[in-house]
Amino acid sequence: MSTSVRTTSTAASGIRALVIGMGGLGCPAALALARSGIGTLGLVDPDTVDVSNLPRQLLYDAHDVGRAKVEVAAERLRGVCPGIRVVTTQARFTAGDAAWLRDFDIVLDGTDSIAAKFDVSDAAVAAGVPLVHAGAVDFRAQLLTIVPRATACYRCVFEQPPPPDDVPSCQEAGVLGPVVALAGSLQAADALRVATGRRPLFADRLLSIDLRAGTWRSIPVARSAHCAACGSPDPQSGSKTPTGRAGGLVRAPDAHRRPAATRPAARGR
Description:
By secondary structure, the protein is an alpha/beta fold. The protein is built from 8 helices and 10 strands. The protein has a single domain, classed as Rossmann fold (3-Layer(aba) Sandwich), CATH 3.40.50.720. Strands 3-2-1-4-5-6-7-8 form an 8-stranded mixed beta sheet, with helices on both faces. Strands 9-10 form a two-stranded antiparallel sheet. Strand 4, helix 5 and strand 5 form a beta-alpha-beta unit. Helix 2 packs parallel to helix 3 and helix 2 packs across helix 8. The protein starts with a helix and ends in a 28-residue tail after the last strand.
């Protein structure tokens, strides 16, 4: 084992990570974090296990159908890592729940709707807690790591939710199990980097993965002067301006004219 990996594993015991959404993204992310030896893992999800979840949500099996996802996931994770502290909340995360995040060092977004992803990003910025975002649909996934008021947030990149029909749902397009497994594992890896004081891999760049085409694209993004979440009022004009980081990278195009590679990928279930 390399010195850097050994150091990360040792430091992980003090990390408190929160996974919001225990579906196709949240399951592999939580499992990877638990196996990395983190001390505290928070799990948030309102749902129960459904038979349709089983092909891509790797912490559940047929005997768990009808049980709360957070309850089942906590049992599995404690079985894998008996020393871990798992805190569960069976509820839907909303924009008003930013206070929940302050008990954690890092947040991972595994939610399954674009509206929820805006809520999680806005809450992380308000709480000042770093966030690793991921979304997946069909053969595609995307990742973005957000260090509040230092790097671009989700709203800087996408501004506002697109029209409901602009992004297909999981039910319409489907989502491949290996896609969410890959994205969730990458989330966990960058979460560990941030929580142990290293530079995040996916900050100020949106990683876009297409496993059908076999492509990985890194798209530069930057904080927006007009971001409603992470800008600060300019004392001269009262307008929002970015703080904590100089600009210079090209922002993603407007949400309604965005090319497919930079559209929000909502689903992870």
